[in-house]
Amino acid sequence: MNQKTTGDIRQDGEPPGLALWGGLEATVNRVREQYFNQMEYNGHAGRLSDLDRFASLGIQMLRYPVLWELIAPDGLASADWSLPDERLPALRDLGMQPIAGLMHHGSGPRHTSLVDPAFPQQLAEYAGAVAQRYPWLEYYTPVNEPCTTARFCGLYGVWYPHAKDDKVFLRALLNQCKGVVLSMQAIRAVNPRAKLVQTDDLGKTYSTPALTEWAAFYNERRWLAWDLLCGMVGPAHALWPYMLRNGVAPEELEWFQEQGCAPDIIGGDYYVTSERWLDHRAERYPAGLAGEHGFVDIEAARALATPTAGVGPLLREAWERYGLPLAVTEAHIDANREDQLRWFLEVWQGAQEQRREGVDVRAVTAWSLLGSFDWNCLVTECKGYYENGAFDLRAPSPRPTALAGLLRELATGRAPSSPILQGQGWWRRPGRLLCTPDRGGGLALLPAARATAQPTPQPILVSGAAGTLGSAFARICRERAIAVQLLTRQEMDIADPASVEAAIARYRPWAIINAGGYVRVHDAERDAGRCLRDNAQGPAVLAAACARHRLRLMNFSSDLVFDGSKGAPYVESDPVAPLNVYGRSKAEAERRVLEVYPEALLVRTSAFFGPWDRHNFVTLALEALAAGMPFSAADDLIVSPTYVPDLVQACLDLLIDQESGIWHLSNADALSWADLARRAAGLAGVDTATLAVLSGAALDMPAAQPRYSALGSERASLMPTLDDALQRYLTARQAGSSRPGAAQAAHYGA
Q1: Percent of the chain beyond pLDDT 70?
Q2: How buried is 454 (Cβ within 10 angstroms: 0-12 exposed, 13-18 middle, 19+ buried)?
Q3: Does some domain include residue 381?
Q4: 412, 432, 452 - which closes a domain
Q5: Please, is 107 exposed, middle or buried when counting C-beta atoms within 10 Å of its C-beta (0-12, 13-18, 19+)?
Q6: Environment class of residue 455 by beta-carbon count within 10 Å: exposed (0-12), middle (13-18) or buried (19+)?
Q7: pLDDT given for residue 451 in this prediction
Q8: DSSP letters for 654-670
């Protein structure tokens, strides 16, 4: 191939510079007789307003589903065009050019499949109908990732028809590629200007010397779909013998040479799983990783001592092989918020670097804008596992995340502004490794990422060094490679303006988290002055300082700002009416902080438990009950238990997203303290014979307690369920993460 184009001036009207594209995850895959439809989960079909959200990001082209299985599952005569009739013109009106996707990891309607000889022509008939209905559409992806889909369906047995056979893999691949050729012919019969954007995984495999031949085979196989469409598969092709040996007739391959359907844009999808490492030494890895061939096939990031350079060299390989314009058509990682930002920026910068070196890279695609469901199990089960994208669907309406802010900056040529980008993604940190790292051998590794001087990252200041919450923030920030500085009261007295100013001048943070304060609810009845100083005056001082210095601020409040009279979970807009001194101090802090600094983030939460301290309710209850000691708990005080690690993770994401105002965060369930003890004991297999269930009044607590202070949310449900949290707590406890002391008799109502 020799179709290289350089420079930024293009006949197809593509604007200069690297473009931002977007994508909507819309997989409709078949698992035996069940279809998994992402559009059912993400609710996009009921939200025309999503298109305005996408346009706000600066997206120039949008990969948009016009899927065969959804539009015409029972044939063209009964096709339902209502969604594309509404959405495709709306996209055009908003300045976003659609790339119409006709199949996305699918196998077609139920009457066909990827190994059906009639599949290619049937897909082409559908493609022609799309073109007839929307003759102005210019960009198409008739089949997304045909090689990857053929592997999952024909080699790995994951999707229909669930084969593990090279013959089925090749038949599925050839059928899909033939379907692409015939589809583009049908489309171009209507619109001769129509362009093919052909996507597939842009990966590479490395190996130990013993597995060099396997790696070489995988590295040729990854190109097969593009090679077929470009008419490059002939007798001289490296995989010609393999294909003939597995039942492919030479005339089938010659057909592709005759048709000439090279993509107008090669679309390479890039994930942290795209680059693989093959190792014959299975004993070096956790049990169960060796496959049917006896070797380990694992993400390169988990095994190589020196991380690869990322997407840039892979784009160059595709350019040198095909000489066709390129785009990264999917860039996404299932990770914490900061790593989502770091991954996308790294891909963007890798594409930019290749452009500067003469590679015609057109765009990078944010995938998926609304997130995706159940890809952690390859969409084989409906478990509700959600990965958010530029927008988070766990709110009443899609909530823009920090990734949306980064996309807007990149689309408009602004420098990325988030301080969180100063850290390294997990795929470049030492903790990524699952074994003793391999230092090379076998196939030559790609150039390692260039070492560049990194500025000292701005930290988050966290007050409350001696507390459960402060230490949890410090631990999790370090795990997430977020620079953090944990401060004692002596290092920063939050109620002393001079002390706060000195800490800001010394550490130059980008955010302050107030995880300290007065926490002894019942003692506060006798120590109101100290409680108000620490819980209300201190946060007000912090708010004033953060407003002056334009720093992000997070402060914590409590369910005890409510009186319990509602009798149902409280949401963020419910009026406060505290019953005790502690609750009044928190309510006063909320009022003063938001008056001074409306951009502050205030988190109401309650009933902490976690694996890293011995004094929380769940730990003490389990210790006492397991030892046969008496333990008392109220059965008429209803709370929302909160697993501290989940709380900290959600808080950090909200802080990075620059959210503000009051948020309720807990693990959702509303139950009494006694029921919490029972539930934890049940999951732990602990006898509750010594649990004494009492009324709140019988516990004789100095501070008045609301009967019902459970927290709900009208903003978003960001945390896992209580049972899920308790299971992870017990796992961490059994692994020795907690260091419980001796069992003791205790009672708890708050």
Answers
A1: 94
A2: exposed
A3: yes
A4: 432
A5: buried
A6: exposed
A7: 56
A8: HHHTT--EEEE-S-S--
**In which band, very low, low, confident or very high, does the pLDDT at 737 lie, cut at 50, 70 and 90?**
very low
The amino acid sitting at 549 is: H
Dihedral sign for Cα atoms in the order 7, 8, 14, 20: positive
Say whether pLDDT at 739 is over 50. no
| Residue 592, CB-side half-sphere exposure with 13 Å CA sphere | 20
Q: Three-state secondary structure along 225-271?
A: HHHHHCCCCCCCCCCHHHHHHCCCCHHHHHHHHHHCCCCCEEEEEEC
Q: Which two tokens stand for residue 651?
A: 């808080």
pLDDT in tens, 59-75: 999 999 999 999 999 99
**Token pair for 493:** 């007295």
The strand pairing partners of 64, in sequence order, are: 100
Report strand pairing: 204-207 vs 275-279. Answer: parallel
- Helix then strand then coil, in percent of the chain rounded to 5, is 40, 15, 45
Give the list of residues 6+ apart from residue 72 with CB closer than 8 angstroms, or none: 78, 79, 80, 109, 126, 129
CATH classification at residue 514: 3.40.50.720
Torsion angle defined by CA atoms of residues 107, 113, 117 and 121, in that order, rounded to the nearest 10 degrees: -50
How many residues comprise the chain? 750
| Residues 165, 156: Cα–Cα separation, whole Å | 8
CB atoms within 10 A of CB 55: 17
Query: How many CB atoms sit inside 10 A of residue 294's CB?
Result: 8
Has residue 5 been placed in a domain? no
Same domain for 70 and 209, yes or no, is: yes
CA distance 301 to 305: 8
Provide mean pLDDT across the span 593-601: 97
Q: Which of 458-467, 605-614, 695-704, 725-734 has the lowest mean pLDDT?
A: 695-704
Alpha carbon distance 557, 564 (integer Å): 16
What is d(CA 322, CA 224) in angstroms, rounded to the nearest whole number? Answer: 12
Assess contact for 407 and 20: CB atoms under 8 A. Answer: yes
Q: Does residue 347 lie in a domain region?
A: yes
For 718, residues 6+ apart whose C-beta sits below 8 A from its C-beta are: 394, 650, 653, 654, 665
Strand pairing report for 195-201 and 265-270: parallel
Which among 386, 325, 377 is positioned nearest to 351, based on CA atoms?
A: 325
Give the C-alpha distances (Å, rounded to integers) separating 671 from 464, 578, 704. Answer: 29, 20, 19
Kindly report, residue by residue over 146-205, the tens digit of the pLDDT: 999 999 999 999 999 999 999 999 999 999 999 999 999 999 999 999 999 999 999 999
Buried b (16+ CB within 10 A) or exposed e, 720-739: bebeebbeebbebbeeeebe
Mean pLDDT of all residues in the chain? 92
3-state secondary structure 488-510: CCCCCCCCCHHHHHHHHHHHCCC
What pLDDT was estimated at residue 449?
Answer: 56
Specify if 4 maps to a domain.
no
CA angle 131, 136, 137 (to 5 degrees): 65
Domain that includes residue 693, residue range: 460-748
Type of residue numbered 505:
A
pLDDT in tens, 38-62: 999 999 999 999 999 999 999 999 9
pLDDT at 7 over 70: no
From residue 376, give the alpha-carbon distance in Å to each of 367, 398, 533, 570. 15, 22, 47, 33
Question: Which residues are 642's β-sheet partners?
Answer: 608
- Report DSSP letters for 152-188, one per residue: IIIIS--STT----HHHHHHHHHHHHHHHHHHHHHHH
- Together in a domain, 597 and 560: yes
Tokens of 178: 């033939």
